[in-house]
Amino acid sequence: MKSNNHNQKGQALVVVLVFTSVFMIVAIGLLQLVATLYKTAVKKQSSLRALQIAEAGANYYKWRLSHSPEDYSGSGDYDYTDPYGGIIGHYNLQITPPILGSTIVTIRSTGYLNDDPNVHRTIEVKFGKRSLSDYSFFTHSNVWFGEDEEVKGKVHSNGGIRMDGEGDSVVESSREKYICGPEHGCNYVEHDGVWGTGKIQELWHFPPIYQVPTIDFNSISVDLGGAGGLKEKAQSADGDYIGYSGSFGYRIKFNTNPATYDLYRVTSTIPTYGYDFSDGWKWRYIDIRNQTYVATYPVPENGIIFVEDQVWVDGTVEGRITLAAANFLATGSDRSIIINNNIDYLEKDGNHALGLIAQKDILVPLYSPERLEIDAAMIAQKGHVFIYNYQASRYGANTVVKDYIEVYGSIGSYNIWTWSWVNAQNTVISGYKQTETLYDNNLTYAAPPDFPQKEEYEQISWKEIH
Fold it and tell me: How would you classify residue 85: left for phi > 0, otherwise alpha for psi between -120 and 50, otherwise beta?
């Protein structure tokens, strides 16, 4: 009996040892699993903190840009502190400034932790300012888009908008109500800020539902002639300044391969009798009769050409150029730009852009092509983008009524804009029968050089670099 008890005790001891061993193995495995999960959690937490530090670096530089918009000298290392001022990591910034004509700043930010230096995260963020060419059409005055007019892109007016045409984007007015006059087919009737028979009316924005800020056309004059403005930049070694012609003005014809422009002095014009809302029927002098060749010049390095006189323009644009016409030598005679013939881009790929900024008007003359294409972002700072009303009885219906005009870019007109004049039956009697404005989305953040832009930087893209 004693031997049997000893055997039972021995067997029990073996069972206990087996279970103890199994328990220890499981416990050790669980401890290792917990330790691994803890290390993974710590690693993920460190990685997340490194990403937050990298984002802090990008946000810091956005703040810096808002205070010094053209300061791109911030590449380097910066300490990152906790709320109590202790340094817990750092971020490294690599800043890529905008190319000519663009506002896009590229920020590459890498975040590091002091307590885990092997962990780091890198992001690339692009910030940019929207230029006024973000709008397909913008104006200070009331405007009417007729049934045969099509606008692709955003429309803005500081006045009211009658939209009977076709638009595919936001149509916004700063006015809650306005008075529509005879020039826009009304008898001084009050209407909403945006109204008409156009489609997609859910894209029409005006107060009080939408608060739409006004566009300050007066600030554009500062950009033309003020300190640091276009005239001053054209007079620098990198730009081209062209003074008073002593005649009717100049013609500039753009060329490609290489990027140059031919300069002509306009010595005489063909008088034409045309009507404008502002001054009625008058003789106009915007069709070239005679010109003399001056020289051919390369497109300037900074892309800015400033003419202190009236200027006609046409040709094919290579590169990024802004052509401005204004008179600051004497008072009483603001300068205009006349579209002499087709203006085309070498390619519509975002690498070529033309800005036309006139102190007064941007005009299409009577003897313009039957089908006219204008690739440009245009601003008439004190006048309008416009074609005069010409009489078929004087010049013939085939001369005064044209077929089609296309703008690839944007139109900014202080006063009333039109490419078409209609009679009481809504038939075109002067100008272009069909008009189309196509928005060039390349111009949103990469407008022509020194083209007017909004003040605030906004984030365009965010991505992590692995």
Answer: left
Residue 135: the pLDDT is 87
Structural domain of 122: 2-130+458-465
Same-domain status, 363 and 221: yes
Residue 166 lies inside a defined structural domain of this protein? no
CA dist 22 and 29 (Å) reads 10
Cα angle vertex 78, ends 72, 83, to 5°? 125
> 337 and 222, same structural domain?
yes
250, 372: one domain: yes
pLDDT digits (tens, 9 = 90+) for 187-229: 999 999 999 999 889 999 999 999 998 888 877 655 788 778 8
Same domain, 100 and 225: no
CA dihedral for 321, 242, 227, 330, sign (positive or negative): negative
Contact 432, 404 (CB under 8 A): yes
DSSP label of 243: -
Any bridge partners for residue 281, and if so which? 275
141 within 8 A of 413, measured Cβ to Cβ: yes
* Mean pLDDT, rounded, of the chain: 89
Distance separating alpha carbons of residues 282 and 107, to the nearest angstrom: 55
User: Based on the domain organization, do 239 and 122 belong to the same domain?
Assistant: no
Task: Tell me, yes or no, whether 234 and 115 share the same domain.
Answer: no
- Indicate whether 124 and 250 sit together in one domain: no
- Spell out the alpha helix ranges (H) of 154-248: 218-225, 230-234
Q: Is 419 within 8 Å of 407 (Cβ atoms)? A: no
Q: Contact 248/312 with Cβ under 8 angstroms?
A: no
Q: Please tell me whether residues 254 and 118 are part of one structural domain.
A: no
In a domain, 181, yes or no: no
Predicted TM-score of the model (pTM): 0.80
C-alpha to C-alpha distances, 463 to 49, 99, 108, 121, 441, nearest whole angstrom: 17, 20, 10, 11, 22
Confidence at residue 384, expressed as pLDDT on a 0 to 100 scale: 94
Query: For residue 98, is it within any domain?
Result: yes
Task: Say whether pLDDT at 171 is over 90.
Answer: yes
Residue 167 placed within a domain: no
User: Pick from 189, 193, 191, 196: which is nearest to 211 by CA?
Assistant: 193
Alpha-helical segments (H) within 205-252: 218-225, 230-234
Distance separating alpha carbons of residues 287 and 272, to the nearest angstrom: 8
Backbone φ and ψ of 239, nearest 5°: -115, 180
Q: How many Å apart are CA 17 and CA 29, to the nearest integer? A: 18
Sign of the CA dihedral 199, 200, 202, 208? negative
Distance of CA 224 to the CA centre of its chain: 18
> Token digits for 328?
């600051």
Residue 152's Cβ-count burial label (10 Å; 0-12, 13-18, 19+) is middle
Domain count, the chain: 2
